[in-house]
Amino acid sequence: MTYKTILVHVDESERSNFRVRLAAEIAKGDAAHLIGTAVTGVSRFIYQDGNISANDPNLTIHLKYLRERAEKAVANFNRQAESVGLDSYESMIANDEAGGGIGLQARYSDLVIIGQTNRDEPSPSVLPDFPEYLIMNAGRPVLIIPYVGDFTSVAKRPLIAWDASREATRAITDAIPLLKRAELVQVAIFNSKSVPDAHGEQPGSDIALYLARHGIKVEVSVHKTNTDIGNALLSLAHDVDSDMLVMGGYGHSRFREMIMGGVTRTILESMTVPVLMSH
User: Of 204, 209, 205, 215, nearest to 181 (Cα)?
Assistant: First the structure.
């Protein structure tokens, strides 16, 4: 099991180059094809409905500005991909907002890599709930890179948040190509007695055996906390020197608004390491 097509969102944010570097490292590890995609930020449905008039000079100037931003982003991606010696890569511009453009291309990718929302660096082409939207709608694992912090590696020491749910199961399965590269994988279970039927007499033993059959070295730890599990996870990630968190993404959509679960919301807002989420 390997990733053969990896999609990374590129833009003019300060962290775009960092995202591309991590994406290139992952792509090299699996000899995967890397796609760097920028978006203009204007929904494709506006174009389809004919709601954009070429006769409006102010609108024309703004659309040109958005297009030029996207062109700069993909040009930078191409230079970076060439400099690190990727064997297979391409770049493209999606005439769409980020959720729609990246979400559509995600259907033809094995892994999607994006950035955490930085509210101190708003983007004209990316809505603040971009990560939430992709997690809920892409149908693919989403690796989210924090907007602060320098990570020399990803997935050498992953931490899995395991609660025996469908979403967590999906996340672990989606992460296997990365987990197989790890030196050690930590599986953390919080408050197992709250769902005894899911965990059984030895919480974590079944998922540890499943991963071991994939040749993955695993350690299981069981924790009890009366505080927010999201913050407890981040604290544990720091204590065990983890460089990636793997977990299920929980929530639902109400029209365009994403209503995320408490732990998912905490992690998306406060992540300190890259986080791979699946729904």
Answer: 215
Q: Say how far apart CA 104 and CA 247 lie, in whole Å.
A: 23
Residue 199 has pLDDT above 80, yes or no: no
Asked whether 258 and 250 are in contact (CB, 8 A), the reply is no
Pairing mode, strands 218-223 and 185-190:
parallel
Are 260 and 132 in contact by the 8 Å Cβ rule? The answer is: yes
Looking only at the bridges linking them, the beta strands covering 33-39 and 5-9 are parallel
Q: Report the range of poorest mean pLDDT among 60-69, 173-182, 258-267, 268-277.
A: 258-267
| Predicted model pTM | 0.93
Using alpha carbons, select from 235, 190, 269 the residue that is nearest to residue 260: 269
Return the beta strands (E) in 46-108 as ranges.
Answer: 89-94
Beta strands in 40-184 (DSSP E): 89-94, 111-115, 142-145, 158-161
Q: CB-based contacts of 193: which residues, under 8 Å, 6+ apart? A: none
The CA angle 230-236-237, to the nearest 5 degrees, is: 90
pLDDT tens digits along 69-109: 999 999 999 999 999 999 999 999 999 999 999 999 999 99
